[in-house]
Amino acid sequence: MNSLTYKDSQTLTSSDIENLALRFGGKREDYIEIVNKQKNIQTINKYALLKEINNELNAAINPCHSE
Amino acid sequence: MQRIFVKGIKGGLGSTSVVANLACVLKKSHVNVIAIDLDPKSDLGLHFGLPWKSTKGWSNEVNFEDVLLHFHQDSDGVIFLPFGDINVDQNDIAHIVNNCKKLDCPQNSWFLFDCPSYIDLAHLPLEPNDIVIELINCDATCHSLIYKRLKKLKSTDSSWKHYFLVNRYNSASVLEFDLFSLWQSTLPLMAPFFINSDEVIKESTAYRNVALNCAPYSIANDDFETLAGWLVSKAAL
Residues 154..183 of B with a Cβ closer than 8 Å to A: which? Predict the structure, then answer.
């Protein structure tokens, strides 16, 4: 894969991340942050306390979307 | 002069071991290191070979001139100041931190402060160039405490450089892997590495020493060398 495929989604697959890392020379916190959003959401949903904290943080940021 | 403050986000996270091992690694790199024990447990000296029966330290003195008598030097050349055995309040801790500036030491000296977990950072006389390392474990309690700390840092005027560092990372734990991966990609202020859980750290304390001297090729010592190099890079910013 020589060019990055545009996706109408915020989800990056592991393959996307590997390709980005190859293209940009690996993860460097100073100028690029590649986030596997899908995996993070899975992790948060896996653990009840993490989910609760995440919900509270989201509610504080977007009060109108809170339950 | 570079000042590093190491504290746990909760108790028992190993800040004393981190300070002792980091001090020796920095000293090996020809940095002038002065380690100050701000924790009433007063056990930093145990890592540097201070006799167990020695209980006195800076908290036993009123005047800073008398405190000078309690500085020791270990076999590696690290200078350290034990806490002592008198109860003090946070103002006394702030005073000793300030008074350490009066010490006549080389310009490139590093001060490492071993802070108790309960200390309120707002009570410390922190300056923009100071680095605060807050130790965390990869567990759910720390996850909760990190977000509370981030809220507090956001609401206060924290001008110092603040970082979270995972200590005692267990690579065999799924939960720890999940949390570390999540924190690395979502949290600001996370150090980009961790200190592995390694029996060497406990063993070296039992042998009255540090990982550098007991097991120089250990994972633990590698981790402390990584930490020292990273701090040098952060101090230069």
Answer: 175, 178-179, 181-182
Which of B182, B230, B233, B234 best probes binding to A when mutated, by most A CB atoms within 10 angstroms?
B182
**CA B211, CA B10: separation in Å to the nearest integer?**
24
A29:B147 CB<8 A: no
pLDDT digits 0-9 by tens, B23-81: 999 999 989 999 999 999 999 999 999 999 999 999 999 999 999 999 999 999 999 99
Cβ separation A44–B140 shorter than 8 A: no
Q: Between chain A and chain B, how many beta carbons pairs sit less than 8 Å apart?
A: 30
Taking only residues 115 to 144 of chain B, the set having a beta carbon closer than 8 angstroms to any beta carbon of chain A reads 140, 143-144
Please state, in angstroms and rounded to a whole number, the distance separating the CA atoms of residues B72 and B78. Answer: 8
For the whole model, what pTM was predicted? 0.86
Tokens 């980009």 belong to: B192
Q: Is the ipTM of this complex over 0.85?
A: no
Q: Nearest CA to B21 among B221, B214, B235, B197? A: B221
- Across-strand partners of B79? B34, B73
What are the counts of helices (DSSP H) followed by strands (DSSP E) for chain B?
A: 9, 8
Residues of A in contact with B185 (CB under 8 A): 33-36, 40
Q: What is the pLDDT of residues B183-223, one digit of tens each?
A: 998 888 999 999 999 999 999 889 888 888 888 999 999 99
Residues 6+ apart with CB under 8 A from A29: B192
Bridge partners for B136 per DSSP: B166
Q: Which two tokens stand for residue B174?
A: 């799924």
